Amino acid sequence: QVQLAESGGGLVPAGGSLRLSCATSGSIFSINVMAWYRQAPGKQRELVARIYSGGTTYYVDSVKGRFTISRDNPKNTVYLQMTSLKPEDTAVYYCSTRRPGSVDPEYWGQGTQVTVSS
After folding, report:
1. DSSP-assigned states of every residue in the chain
2. How many CA atoms lie within 13 A of 47 on its CB side?
3. With contact defined as beta carbons under 8 Å apart, do 13 and 116 qualify?
């Protein structure tokens, strides 16, 4: 069974930094596409960043230049380094994974809260 566990969320002032981690088990991590999503109160869940098995990355425009997604295949872990945080980054952040041939995320973590104070 595939399991994902996020950690690293918390409360930070605007301009601060956080690093989220997502440890996975039960899947062939090295070939899977990994992604971070977020959901703010009253809003739909949105894709924040994605990383493919070869290291290619994608970012939503609102986080480009501030967030960095990375993966450590031997540790089956994906990270999201967040800098220059803004109050509008406040949300529950979710880690997800899918196999290369799938279109949508197949598995999700439980989420970790990130709160940025102004």
Report:
1. --EEEEE--EEEETT--EEEEEEEESS-GGGSEEEEEEE-TTS--EEEEEE-TTS-EEE-GGGTTTEEEEEEGGGTEEEEEE-S--GGG-EEEEEEEE-TT-SS--EE---EEEEEE-
2. 14
3. yes
Nearest to 24 by CA among 113, 108, 112: 108
- The Cα–Cα gap between 55 and 47 comes to 17
Question: CA 25 to CA 34: how far, in whole Å?
Answer: 13
The string of pLDDT tens digits covering residues 6-32 is: 999 999 999 999 999 999 998 778 789
